[in-house]
Amino acid sequence: MSPPPPPPLGRGRKRAAHAFDSALGDTELITARAALAQGRWTAVRGLLVATGDDWDRRAHRVTVLAQESSTQAWARDWLLAEPESADAAVLLAVASVQRALNGKEKPERARKACHSAVALAPADPTPWLGLLMLERTLGSDEDVVRLFDEVRHRHPDHHHAHHLMTARLAERRPGVGQDPLHEVYDFAGWSAEQAPADSPLAILPVVAHAERYRVLAAAGSEPADPVASGHWVGRRARQVMKAAFDWWLEWERDDHPRSNVDLNFLAHAKFCEGRGAEAAALFHRIGPHATPAPWAYPDRDPYTAFRAARGSVLGAA
After folding, report:
1. Which superkingdom heads the taxonomic lineage of this protein's source (predicted)?
2. What is the pLDDT of residue 18?
């Protein structure tokens, strides 16, 4: 019998006592989200029009808005008022996916909403990202690869899609233990090499390393405390971490909407590697924008883990 599916990417099995803000400091998004909570979807319409075809930023904003409990209802009202609105259809689709992942919507209804959005916005990778988010947890490997290809066809360097694909690939063959030739490492390395020089996908090998640790720790072949694990101190791991940190020092893509996701993975890696000074520089840059992944790995309270790691290198709790 197959093991039960893992929790969706970025959600630990234990509920965190501290609420993370997935907006990651996007002030325009935070303003529109507050307006939507009050039923004023015109603010979201303006936000998405202004976002245009900046696909990574659009995906970030839509997925954050979709997490709000009232979004599906307001997006449905918006679509009733403007039946040809691709933005309304995409927001409704991803909100439906979020509800399906939370067990509050039938997956088939979420899939239908995503395909309706595809029909209104054929060039937009975001409804395909919604399907990928759903099937990353519920679907077959073939489904996940097919949907990733659909996203990548529309935006080859899609940040969120690459993270989802990395997490799913890391779950293959959990029983083989430390395998430096595991396909997740090949995928991450290939993606980083194919991306433009200033692409944050340069950090993807670090993400792959953390995702594989999550799987190995859950399988019992790595300690539950990542610092006690040798996962980050081998020769290959050190090469990956150094290359990623050197890239960050040179490029510092603070303008990317999900840059704080990358910074949290890199800070976690440097902390686990025992490189306190490098981790401290990253914690300073992260500021208040902690993310649940990878601090929750494998089954930890992410906020407690983040604060403990930050405190140990900065000298403050």
Report:
1. Bacteria
2. 65
